Amino acid sequence: MEAVVPVHGVMAEFDDATEFVAAIHAIKEAGYEGFDAYSPMPIEEAAEAMGLHGNRLPLMVLCGGITGFCVGYALAYWTGVVNYPLNVGGRPLHSWPAYIPVLFECTVLFASLTAVFGMLGLNGLPKLYHPVFNVERFALASQSRFFVCIEATDPKFDLEGTKRFLQGLTSSQVSEVES
Questions:
Q1: SS3 at position 179
Q2: How far apart are CA 84 and CA 81, in angstroms?
């Protein structure tokens, strides 16, 4: 008795970026929602064709910077006014111009850490394994080939129908992606 291997999706390989972007447009027009595209370099037209517009990272970095500013101000105020007040030369204890270097450094620190960890979190990294790695030719995705994978979780997904659809898109090769 033969074991049935679950399918993650169907992957099509394309030779150039023009065919790749045209295929993404065709996939969207056909009504597929659950698919992903892989290319050796960033292609702005592919991102637009997939409908990837919003990015939450800039707002996250802004919030991280504001948090860093507030933490830095609280730290400088607490150390200079509450914990260890020193009146040197008659200056006021709460002298905010002296806080500027601390505020700047805390703002940059919190914003940069938010950018790094936010990028990793939004990209789902670190991801050491993905089912598309099971396709032998997928190693070319980082060199010279373009791939589109329609996932089995898509409501419109039908194994044979999706294979036929992708073969009709000028793809050089269509293969099943095992889970």
A1: coil
A2: 6
Considering its fold, how many domains does the chain have in total? 2
Residue 2 lies in a domain: no
The angle formed by the CA atoms of residues 124, 127 and 129, to the nearest 5 degrees, is 140
What is the tens place of the pLDDT at every residue in 21-65?
A: 999 999 999 999 999 999 999 999 999 999 887 889 999 999 999
The rounded distance, in Å, linking the Cα atoms of 73 and 142 is 45
CA 172 to CA 71: how far, in whole Å? 55
Does 167 lie in the same domain as 81?
Answer: no
29, two tokens = 């027009």
Q: How far is Cα 104 from Cα 65, in angstroms, rounded to an integer?
A: 9
Assess whether 17 and 62 both reside in one domain.
Answer: no
Rounded CA-CA distance 87/79 in Å is 13
From the CB of residue 150, how many other CB atoms can be counted at a distance below 10 Å? 25
Handedness of CA 53, 150, 24, 33 (dihedral sign): negative
